[in-house]
Fold this protein.
Amino acid sequence: MSPSYNFPKYCHCVMCMQFQILHCTLVTNRKLKLWKIKESEMCSFCELEVESISHLLFDYLHIKIFWFRLKGWLTMKTNNRIDFNISKIDLILGKSDSDNRLINLAYLVAKQYIYSCRCLYKGSYWIR
């Protein structure tokens, strides 16, 4: 019998999504087209580029604005300048040292929010 952890449902969803990102199994329009479920592989938000994990979480213009605003909000809330310079590697894997737990948590929750918006087809207006 496996140990029982009392994680809230949301935490489980975040962990599952991170697992899918790490294993390149997060469902994007690129994969849905490959599986012949969707006709277009274009981004759900911009409809200009192929929707990949990288585009969805990092390359899309409004996502870059989102990360910039999140950095400003965290800086304001923590009353200090935190090292929140985002690279694709840090965004996907997280920052390695234990001093960055807040940043890694922010990455996880933000990625879940972005992907939830994509699944609900909210478009890019959610960022404004």
User: Anything to note?
Assistant: Residues 1-5 have pLDDT under 50 and may be disordered.
